[in-house]
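#lab-general

N.A. 3:47 PM
ok so I finally got the sequence cleaned up, no stray characters, all 184 residues accounted for. can someone with queue access submit it? mine expired

B.Y. 3:52 PM
send it over

N.A. 3:53 PM
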Amino acid sequence: MSNAVSALQSASFDGYCKVEEAGLVGMITLRGDLTSKGVAKAVKAVTGAAMPGQGEVTEGAKGRVGWMSPDELLLIVDHADAPAIVEAATTSLGDEHSLVVNVSDARAVYRVKGAACREVIAKLTPADTSVMQPGMLRRTRIAQIPAAFYLEDDETAVLVCFRSVAQYAFDLLKDAAQPGGEVF
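B.Y. 4:20 PM
back already:
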């Protein structure tokens, strides 16, 4: 079996904000009835996180959970643990109508670090980044590609996109973070 590698092998750029590919990140799509107690129990069991509300991301001892749509969650966990978490969640859900899929290797993840991280993202998306606070998640687009982002803290934005457009996304983020491109 080959070794897993991230899309850009932890590429980084130092501009007026630092842009870096996050490396290998475990990502699991869980689809089902998000109002179900069984889904909430499974999510809590595998991540330690509470169910997020619409547009939220919650954090637990073993990972984060982001609300992606009325019937979809994104579980963000350690890459090495993702296969076991898929199995545990599937077992926990039992006969509950649901789908649990490891999408780790189909995604690329970036961190934009710095006081102006919202500004860098704002240059690329129609989403209003000025209202974003830690714990909020936005599914949107950057330039011409679908993406989602959330704030880990006030100076760190995390952006998720498809791996097939990893280089394009990185180049967009680098361009938006170029020194001299600050918005005054």
